Amino acid sequence: MSARRDLEIPERIGRLPDAVAARAITPRVLQGYEILSFSSLKDKVEDPIDESKRWDAGPLRELLTEAMRRFADTAPTVSDAWLAPRLHYTLRLTRAEASDTSLWNFIGLCLAPDFVQWRWGRGESGREVGQAARFSGRWDIQCFSRLWWAAELFRDGKNYGPVELACGNQDMLNTVLRTEIIQHRPTAQALLRLQFRDVVRTGRDVNAAVSVANAAGVTLVYEALAPDELQDADALQDWILAAGEGPEIQYDTLPQGPRDGSVPSDSAEILTVWFEKLFADAPVRGKGRVVDESDAGDATQISGI
User: Which of 118, 157, 165, 282 has its CA 20 to 30 A from that of 128?
Assistant: First the structure.
């Protein structure tokens, strides 16, 4: 499915209130009989946050059209790993801005509703979307928000390589995003190292590893065990404001994110070793038992790993 020629594409990325979005997502839209468009909703759209180039809709629309073209002959899920870092690079936001659901409502319903149907469509038509939340919903479920946040939480400073790894595994992407431990950057990188080193291989492996890491986090203060470094807020802001000023994104080359500081490798490695030990006792394919919180010990017991 490529971009619908009869869709009116907006010039700027605005905001669509939740209440308006909820009314717009009718059963006909969910069943794939109708594709919403900017022309049908533009009277309800709120203006962009500011007048900067980062709200130009063209680059994002072109990126999404390219994703549909590039992965037309594969399962749409495969597009996540390619799209997430490029979506984050193209749509430069602060975390506060990315927490605004009205922004994602606009992208899902006014800018690229055809992409939502392409990515999440099913049924005989291939356009039936089972969840309204894919158009307008919680940050870890909405079609575009989930990928932007995955890129934000899994990137290692300017390096989007870990994002590709994370989004290439639907179990890692879907399971980890729902946990609080993902907010700690060394923890996110440690979980990916388990995957990269083939410690976890299957979906069940991933779910078990995340489960025991999350349970251990109740008693272990990961920030104390594996400290992170303060990110460079000024570098991030400069990168955001530079949207549209640099060279155009290259679809075959992984872009570089903001130079706001890498994750301390030693901290990520400490947690990688610890998570591997926890995973050894995880109940996967009949091996061992679930790690109890009391088994996790405390930071003083494992600080020498």
Answer: 165
Beta bridge partners of 121: 129
- Pairing state between β 128-129 and 121-122: antiparallel
Q: Does position 298 have pLDDT exceeding 70, yes or no? A: no
**Domain extent listing, the chain:** 1-154, 155-228+263-305
Count of other CB atoms within 10 angstroms of residue 121? 18
Which two three-digit tokens encode residue 174? Answer: 């879907």
What is the distance between the alpha carbons of residues 133 and 141, in angstroms, rounded to a whole number?
Answer: 6
Burial pattern 203-232, b for ≥16 Cβ within 10 A else e, equals eebbbbbbbbbbbbbeebebeebbebeeee
Burial 145-169 (b: 16+ CB within 10 A, else e): bbbbbbbebbbbbeebebbbbbbbb
For the chain, what is the total number of helices (H) and then of strands (E)?
17, 2
Q: What is the pTM of this model?
A: 0.89
Helix/strand/coil for 131: coil
Surface-to-core class of residue 250, CB atoms within 10 Å of its CB (0-12 exposed, 13-18 middle, 19+ buried): exposed
Model confidence at 1: pLDDT above 70: no
- CA 218/CA 295 separation, integer angstroms: 12
Cα dihedral 126, 83, 182, 222, rounded to 10, equals 150
Quickly tell me which residue has 């907006």 as its tokens: 10
